[in-house]
Amino acid sequence: MTPKTHIIAEKGKQELFITREFDAPRELVYKAFSEPNLLVQWMGPKEMDTIVHKLDNRSHGSWRFSHTDPHKNTHAFNGTIHEASAPERIIRTFEYEGMPERGHVSLEFLTLENLQNNRSKMSIQVVFKSVEDRDGQIEAGMERGVVDSHERLDVLLKSL
Q1: What is the model's pLDDT at position 135?
Q2: 134 with 140: CB under 8 angstroms?
Q3: Are 27 and 119 in contact (CB under 8 A)?
Q4: Which of 56, 63, 78, 88 lies deepest, with the highest CB count within 10 Å?
Q5: What is the share, in percent, of the chain residues with pLDDT greater than 70?
Q6: How far is CA 48 from the centre of its chain?
Q7: In this structure, what is the dihedral angle of CA atoms 64, 108, 69, 158, given to the nearest 10 degrees?
Q8: What pLDDT is attached to residue 116?
Q9: Which of 96, 22, 92 is nearest to 66 (CA)?
Q10: What are the pLDDT digits (tens) for 74-118?
Q11: What are the residue ranges in the chain where pLDDT is below 70?
Q12: d(Cα 57, Cα 92) in Å, to the nearest integer?
């Protein structure tokens, strides 16, 4: 059975939840989130190329990466890493630089837990400044990008 990404965004709330199980231990999933050479292989929609401009995956570090679509449009993202506790937790901010006005920053709480049979579960809570900010991210195609990324991450994890 192929794992599926679940995104829950309750109407009127300024948060959303993302969960996904992987056929890999959490140490390997954490590594895929933490190493630039692995991140570029799975992060973002499948038709886009990813560039990691910065990934200082430690508490008080920062990150920035961009996606380039087939029409050469660039979509950039950045944030601050508040906590990086390998292999179970990353807390970071997330900002899509393409929003019409700057300042639409969300806070992500990513946790990884081991499951039986060398599997793991990823849970992400994303808290937005407002319901409008959350809905704007969803309308901008966030769900497709997340699902594509997780499918690509599955393929990468099987190759490691």
Answers
A1: 92
A2: no
A3: no
A4: 63
A5: 95
A6: 15
A7: 100
A8: 96
A9: 96
A10: 989 999 999 999 999 999 999 988 766 655 899 999 999 999 999
A11: 1-2, 99-103
A12: 10
DSSP state of 117: T
Residue type, position 137, single letter: Q
Q: Where are the domains of the chain?
A: 6-159
For residue 121, the SS3 value is strand
Give the global pTM: 0.92
Kindly state the percentage of the chain with pLDDT values over 90: 86
Architecture of domain 6-159: 2-Layer Sandwich (3.30)
Closest CA relative to residue 32, chosen from 52, 3, 5, 2: 52
Give me the DSSP letters along 125-149. EEE-SSHHHHHHHHHTTHHHHHHHH
Burial 23-43 (b: 16+ CB within 10 A, else e): ebbbebbbbbbbebebbebbb
- The C-alpha atoms of residue 110 and residue 113 are separated, in whole angstroms, by 10
Instruction: Determine the distance from the C-alpha atom of residue 147 to the mean position of all C-alpha atoms in its chain, rounded to a whole number.
Output: 10
Tokens 């990513």, residue located: 110
Q: How far is the C-alpha of 134 from the C-alpha of 118, rounded, in Å?
A: 34
> 71-105 burial, b if ≥16 CB within 10 A, otherwise e?
eeeebebbbbbeebeebeebbbebbbeeeeeeebb
